[in-house]
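Page 37, continued from 36.
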């Protein structure tokens, strides 16, 4: 029987309300959030057509090669907040097409065997349906199977840099709101890219790892053999060979006669490991609003990786959320379509961190703003800035949909002050903005009854 399609836009509206209800239950924000309730609600949606959007075939240059992709956007002129999907490892096309056939599939994905997954295409369409533009692209190893020499770290692993340069040239892109999505291996890369640029504004890691690449890979080889009744002795021997190779690379004792692994020379692997071994450090250095999503049934990047990231990443605007019952490819174990709970969660989080895109804020210097207590339960907040604001200032509070729910103009000669009369705010998550002619600040606040 054909599975019913889900109305992604309708699910956004319903699930976002429910997430706000969960937020009001006094659950910790930066720990695992149980979204089982959302999964149940998602099953109640009926089929309706998606909102009008455009899928444009595009290309851009990267290290002397042409990268081909698709730019999804809402129907209209924009400019639109824009996200770029960094794909996982392997020769992925822009859709993330994966045919679930072959060894281990019957064991690992018995209810999906024979299905074809297209998670990046469906993720882009869901986000475009919610008002965002999304760029996804074919990886070079997909397009140029035997034409990649010479292979370098920059060429093979950093096309996202060129993707950012490309979208910034488009008139329908809001260049003050560019978000990088890193799925799986790209979760290693997006903080490195963001830390070396000043034009990325948010990051989203989906099934991103904290453990080193070789540790993750060898665990997969052995675990899959054990789970699927494979040759565990052979798998263990292969895993040890891989670990020994990367130990050699990390030691720097390789020579020109050291053979490549997976078609990549030890010198290039050295560049790669230098970046991915510093994943948590790069997230901390980039210090951008970041959403980390762990997937509860992920056998490629196990849920414990989310815990490791939470332990090591200390940026203030980071959320670590676990979504149960999803596999590594963002789908349930019995449905090839990407989970609307996941897409709803991403949209909800994006609305928590609206970027400074209004004309009056562009070009202003941002200052640090601290709020306490946060979450708060009363009718007032204490605010502390790292410098005084001269002149008349505007305070605004926005809800998760970007609607203004509070505004006030006031002079603040002292960097410490109180904000009163917040009794009309309902329980939920808000964005507090503070600005004058030259300076601006914003932070997330949580109201609880």
């Amino acid at each position: 029987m054909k599975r019913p399609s889900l109305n992604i836009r309708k699910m956004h509206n319903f699930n976002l309300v429910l997430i706000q209800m969960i937020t009001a239950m006094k659950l910790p924000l930066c720990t695992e959030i149980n979204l089982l309730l959302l999964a149940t609600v998602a099953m109640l949606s009926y089929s309706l057509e998606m909102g009008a959007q455009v899928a444009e075939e595009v290309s851009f240059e990267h290290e002397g090669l042409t990268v081909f992709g698709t730019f999804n956007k809402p129907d209209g002129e924009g400019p639109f907040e824009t996200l770029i999907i960094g794909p996982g490892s392997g020769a992925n096309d822009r859709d993330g097409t994966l045919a679930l056939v072959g060894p281990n599939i019957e064991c690992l994905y018995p209810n999906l065997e024979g299905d074809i997954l297209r998670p990046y295409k469906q993720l882009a369409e869901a986000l475009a349906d919610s008002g965002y533009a999304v760029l996804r692209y074919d990886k070079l190893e997909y397009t140029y199977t035997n034409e990649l020499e010479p292979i370098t770290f920059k060429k093979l692993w950093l096309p996202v840099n060129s993707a950012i340069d490309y979208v910034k040239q488009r008139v329908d892109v809001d260049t003050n709101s560019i978000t990088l999505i890193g799925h799986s291996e790209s979760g290693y890369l997006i903080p490195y890219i963001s830390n070396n640029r000043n034009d990325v504004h948010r990051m989203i890691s989906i099934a991103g790892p904290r453990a080193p690449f070789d540790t993750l890979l060898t665990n997969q080889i052995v675990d899959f053999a054990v789970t699927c009744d494979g040759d565990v002795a052979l798998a263990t021997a292969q895993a040890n060979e891989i670990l020994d190779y990367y130990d050699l690379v990390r030691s720097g004792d390789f020579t020109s006669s050291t053979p490549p692994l997976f078609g990549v020379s030890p010198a290039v692997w050295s560049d790669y490991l230098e970046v991915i071994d510093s994943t948590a450090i790069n997230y901390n250095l980039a210090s951008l609003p970041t959403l980390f999503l762990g997937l509860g049934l992920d056998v490629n990047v196990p849920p414990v990786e989310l815990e490791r990231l939470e332990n090591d990443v200390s940026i203030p605007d980071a959320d670590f959320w676990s979504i149960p019952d999803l596999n590594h490819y963002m789908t349930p174990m019995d449905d090839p379509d990407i989970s609307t709970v996941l897409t709803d969660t991403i949209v909800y989080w994006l609305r928590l961190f609206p970027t400074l895109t209004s004309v009056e804020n562009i070009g202003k210097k941002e200052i640090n703003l601290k709020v306490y207590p946060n979450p708060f339960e009363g009718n007032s907040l204490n605010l502390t800035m790292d410098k005084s604001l001269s002149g008349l200032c505007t305070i605004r509070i926005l809800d998760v949909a970007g609607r203004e729910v509070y505004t006030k103009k006031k002079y603040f000669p002292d960097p410490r002050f109180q904000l009163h009369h917040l009794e009309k705010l309902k329980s939920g998550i808000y964005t507090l903005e503070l600005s004058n002619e030259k300076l601006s600040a914003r932070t997330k606040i949580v109201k609880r009854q």
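DSSP finds 14 helices and 18 strands in the chain. Flag for discussion at group meeting. Confidence is low (pLDDT under 50) at residues 1-18, 20-50, 356-363.
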